Amino acid sequence: MLRRVRYGEPIVVVTGLPRSGTSMMMQMLEAGGVAPITDGVRGADESNPRGYYEFERVKDLESTTEWEWLTGARGRAVKIIAFLVRFLPQGFNYKVVFMHRSLDEILVSQTKMLERLGEPNDTSDARMKTLYVDHVARAKSFLAYRPCFDVLHVQYHEILADGPGHALKLNRFLGGRLDTAAMTAVVDPTLHRNRDGSMR
After folding, report:
1. At 164, which helix (H) or strand (E)?
2. Which of 69, 116, 173, 193 is most buried, with most CB under 10 Å away?
3. What pLDDT is recorded for position 195?
4. Which CATH code fits 2-184?
C-alpha cells in the first residue's frame, strides 16, 4: 500500500519468452478492461491473427534512462519479453504476469513464424534452449527480489484447459475489477494447432 501511495497505480507487465502466449494474455487483459500500451507498428499476421500487442519503445529498455512513457503506463498493460524485464526501473509499481510454455513448442512456433516471414534461423535449437533457460532464470531472479514487482506465473497450457479459472485468478491478482466473462471468451484453444506450437 505504501509503495502504491508513493509510486502510483501499478503497471501491468506481461512477460515471458517469445511465442509463449504473451499476446493472448494481452488480449485477455484488454477484454477484461485493462487498456494495452501498443503502437501498431507490427500488425497482425498468420502467426498472430489477433495482433502482437507490441510497443517499440520497450526494445530500448536495455540502453535508455528515459522512463517518461512508463509514467503514462500506470494502470495499463504492456508486453515486455523476459530478457528485458530486468532493465525496468524500480521507481514504479508493477503487476507482472509471467507466461510459461514448453520450450519445444516455443521453438517449433518460432521456426514456423520465421519461415512465414522468410527470415533465416541461424541459431540451433540446442543453443536457443540454453539462451531461453538463462533468460527465464535471470528474469525470475530479478523479479523475486525487488519489492516493486508482484508476480503471477501462468502456464499457457493451463489457460487453454481452464480459461474461466485463470480469468478469476487474474482478476484477483489485478484487484478484482475485471470482466472475467469477456476474458474467458478470448481464450481460443483452436489457435494451439495440433498442440505443436504453431501459434502464439
Report:
1. helix 163-173
2. 173
3. 47
4. 3.40.50.300
